[in-house]
Amino acid sequence: MLENDALIRVENLRKTYRQGSRRSPQAEFVAVDDVSFHISKGETWGLIGESGSGKSTIGRMLLSLVAPTSGTVLFDGNDLNVLDARYVRKMRSRMQMVFQDSGSAFNPRRPVGEQIAFGLRLYDICAPRECRKQVVELLERVGLDESHYSRYAHEFSGGQKQRLGIARALATRPEFIVLDEPTAALDVSVQAQVLNLLKDLQAEFGLTMMLITHNLSLVEFMCDRAAVLNHGNLIEEGPVDTMFSSPQSEITRSLLDAVLEPEAA
């Protein structure tokens, strides 16, 4: 993937937090430390790391859900850190996230169809009377149907909730989607179904995707390029085939030694 085709460009990204109370000395915790990378249009880029490595923090900074302490996030050439907040809000329709547990991201008191339609109305994507039709089309595209529109999140299985999360992410017609451990809570057979669905949707809609995971099998199945994050530091990056066949760091080698056979094929 060519760097000049980058949809996302991250330069010297850093995120720190203050620890301790007002009455005690505060220590600085570095969650992300001087991270730089790019994600080309149309590719799936994987970010691999153990729990607490900072990978989800990076994903949220890319979507302006968390403000970086320093560094630059460019989306399609626009520096999100210096844009007016109202403009960033408009641009956010072009960037969406699928969470590890999409069910918890839905309001339990409202039908899921209405919540998916909210994004359509917020960004004036369709007239109010057309929203239900478009939501039903999205539900059908992710393997659900019109009868699911009026149901509530607790009525769905884990795999169905992830499909709902994908439908909601697609509602604003985004160009870029962050997948934050999207199959971690699912059994193997359902994982494969969700991953194959994501691959099909990427081809259909020309999506650029970032996959955040600790599972190298998913990276091998889904990603074109990937990077390894350790304690907030990016220690290795490259094409997945090259990284897996000739890892350059000891941490990557140890992750590969522990990996299971690919779960999705």
From TrEMBL:
Q: Which Pfam families match?
A: ABC_tran
Q: Which residues form the ABC transporter domain?
A: 8-256
Keyword annotations from UniProtKB, A to Z: ATP-binding, Nucleotide-binding, Transport
Transport as UniProt keyword: yes
Q: GO molecular-function annotation terms?
A: ATP binding
Q: What's the family?
A: Belongs to the ABC transporter superfamily.
| PANTHER family noted in UniProt | D,D-DIPEPTIDE TRANSPORT ATP-BINDING PROTEIN DDPF-RELATED (PTHR43776:SF7), TRANSPORT ATP-BINDING PROTEIN (PTHR43776)
Q: What is this protein called?
A: ATP-binding cassette domain-containing protein
- The organism's lineage? Bacteria, Bacillati, Actinomycetota, Actinomycetes, Micrococcales
